[in-house]
Design brief:
Elements: E1 5-15, H1 47-56, E2 78-79, H2 81-85, H3 112-127, E3 135-152, E4 157-159, H4 164-180, E5 190-200, E6 204-216, H5 228-245, H6 251-265, E7 267-268, H7 288-291, E8 295-296, H8 298-311, E9 316-324, E10 330-340, E11 343-347, E12 369-371, E13 376-378, E14 381-382, H9 383-386, E15 387-388, E16 415-417, E17 425-433, E18 439-447, H10 450-453, E19 457-467, H11 468-471, E20 484-487, E21 493-494, E22 498-506, E23 516-526, E24 533-537, E25 541-544, H12 545-557, H13 564-578
Parallel strand pairs: 1-2, 7-8, 16-24
Antiparallel strand pairs: 1-5, 3-4, 3-6, 5-6, 9-10, 9-15, 10-11, 11-12, 13-14, 17-18, 18-22, 19-20, 19-23, 21-22, 23-24, 23-25
Helix pairs in contact: 1-3, 3-4, 5-6, 6-8, 12-13
Length: 579
């Protein structure tokens, strides 16, 4: 029978996460950025925050495991992250089953013990906003087991080559936190200590971890924590700017305004290439956009996008993997997925930056804005071919492999067309202007009923007009090239049952009086539940100037006792028709 020995041990471990190794179009950047996870949820106000609060309020039970007891002692064994680097020969492997899915945050993909670590980080760094030197303590119940190997059992010399579940729990929780909560921008690398009881045999033992303490040992960059007030003020100013510049309150217009704000007010930090990752640590946070530094790398672009989306209640996730600029060139990269309605679309604001107008002012482009996996982007490549997300978020191999939100195959189509709209929109017909500038006018009517009144926000309605020869066989919609989109700034008439407005195409030369013109009414409204923009179209009406003039001539000719103004119009119509 083997002699059993009992040891009490407190272990400490050091980890510097390389959560997203950054990539730009012109260069590859490697940096240790053991930080963030974008928190779209605001503390105490959102579902995730409430879930965390409920989890933290669960009672911690004290229970004995045989003759094992719990102790809390000062750390006496330090293992560097090199230990973790040796695990599994550096191989990457997945923790999650194929059925795992993203459910509002990366926290949702953690097990119960990992969620406790995540919640401890969230409470300390997001809710309480403690400095990086604050020690975070988390209790485990039940305890977490791991194996211990003796290199020399006669002298009781311990060699811990694989910390198993506890190592994975810490690194998985930290990775999820730093991807869900980029607002904790001031923290970086950390040590963690665990309290463990070791029940040992001659050559192998079993450890049971009862609690963990996390001690952040570096700021993201010197003085980062002191910039919280400036960060808060800058973020608030950015939110105000986005709110003022967006065209309406739809999710699309809000995301577009955020995208443009980032590209206009920030630029790529090429200086970060020549400095240490610590000196230029700000480049890997979203803070520079709000603190006045104004420069960062792809990780900063992505985190700034997530931070601003979160302020408007828009689900936004950080996504990392490989960005390829060619078949043979590429490197670690970070971008975003954002949710509109029930679908997720990709945005790479880093690769949309770097363009300017002739006067040198920034000019946002939209090559990588709300695209899908099969969207053709550049270099004859689909998005999924130059943005490859492998789920691995650390250079330290762990069992944690993120399951990213499911990306839509197609790019976002801004407007959802209501094929069977409840709001009644009708094109009444066409009339003409008989004086300079000659034109054709389409009348549109909107029923003023319960369906119209139930819509919270109607940002725009108007008329679409285009010559039939230009339109060809295409349907007349807002997205049709060269369409004249005339907003109804003035209501022609209205009563208790309807609104009537007109859209006019003017300056039609006489040589084009015989050309058919197509007109169609449209109305855009915002869905309160999803924030999506819906569009309603009326039927298309096709008329030429001569066609309307002939119909008007027939009408005025039938008047038995025409007024002088009627006679003047009739003479003018006869003049047009005789030319």
């Amino acid at each position: 029978m083997k002699k059993m020995q009992k040891r009490m041990l407190v272990m400490a471990f050091s980890a510097t996460l390389a959560l997203s190794l950054l990539f730009s179009v012109l260069s590859v950047l490697k940096v240790s950025a053991s930080e963030e996870v974008s928190q779209t949820d605001l503390p105490g106000e959102t579902a995730l925050a409430q879930t965390i609060q409920d989890h933290l309020s669960e009672p911690i039970r004290s229970e004995e495991k045989g003759n094992l007891t719990v102790t809390r002692q000062a750390p006496d064994l330090i293992l560097s992250n090199q230990t973790a680097l040796k695990r599994n020969n550096g191989a990457r492997f997945n923790k999650f089953l194929p059925s795992a899915s993203y459910n509002g945050s990366y926290r949702s993909e953690l097990d119960d013990n990992e969620k406790k670590i995540f919640d401890g980080l969230y409470q300390s760094l997001v809710v309480q906003r403690n400095p990086s030197n604050e020690i975070i303590h988390v209790d485990f119940n039940p305890t977490i087991p791991f194996d211990v190997v003796y290199s020399d059992p006669e002298t009781n010399t311990l060699s811990i080559d694989d910390l198993g579940d506890i190592d994975d729990a810490v690194l998985s929780a930290a990775a999820a936190f730093f991807y869900d909560c980029p607002e904790a921008f001031w923290v970086r690398s950390f040590n963690y200590a665990i309290d463990a009881d070791l029940t040992t045999g001659k050559n192998v033992g079993k450890g049971y971890v009862d609690w963990i303490e996390i001690d952040f040992i570096k700021d993201a960059y010197p003085g980062a924590y002191s910039e919280i007030a400036a960060y808060d003020a800058g973020l608030s100013a950015a939110v105000d700017s986005v709110r003022q510049t967006r065209k309406n309150e739809s999710v699309y217009e809000t995301i577009k305004a955020i995208h443009d704000y980032i590209l206009i007010n920030a630029s790529y930090d090429y200086d970060a290439l020549s400095g240490s990752s610590y000196t230029y640590g700000y480049a890997y946070t979203g803070a520079p956009l709000f603190t006045g530094k104004g420069k960062f790398v792809c990780e900063g672009y992505s985190k700034a996008m997530k931070l601003l989306c979160g302020k408007f209640g828009i689900n936004c996730a950080l996504v990392s993997g490989t960005g390829r600029t060619s078949d043979s060139s590429g490197g670690p990269h970070m971008w975003n997925y954002v949710q509109i309605g029930g679908n997720w679309y990709a945005i790479d604001s880093t690769w949309d930056d770097g363009y300017a107008n002739q006067d040198g002012t920034p000019r946002p482009i939209y090559n990588y804005f709300l695209v899908g996996s099969t969207t053709w982007v550049r270099n004859n490549k689909m998005f999924s071919q130059d943005h490859i997300n492998d789920g691995q978020v650390m250079t330290i191999p762990t069992k944690f492999s993120m399951v990213f939100p499911p990306l839509s195959e197609s790019a976002y189509s801004r407007y959802i067309v209501d094929a069977n709209p409840k709001i009644t929109l009708t094109t009444l017909g066409a009339s003409i202007r008989v004086s300079e500038p000659y034109g054709i006018r389409f009348g549109i009517q909107i029923k003023r009923d319960e369906a119209l009144n139930s819509v919270h926000y109607i940002p725009e309605f108007g008329t679409l007009i285009i010559p039939s020869t230009t339109l060809g066989d295409n349907e007349l919609t807002i997205n049709t090239p060269n369409v004249r989109r005339i907003k109804a700034d003035n209501i022609y008439s209205h009563d208790e049952t309807q609104y009537t407005y007109t859209g006019v195409l003017i300056k039609i030369p006489q040589s084009f009086f015989g050309t058919n013109i197509k007109g169609r009414g449209y109305l855009i409204y915002i869905d309160d539940a999803t924030g999506e923009e819906h569009i309603i179209y009326s039927k298309t009406v096709e008329r030429s100037f001569y066609w309307v003039a002939q119909a008007a001539y027939d009408k005025y000719s039938a008047i038995e006792n025409p007024s002088e103004s009627d006679k003047a119009i009739l003479r003018k119509l006869r003049e047009f028709l005789n030319n």
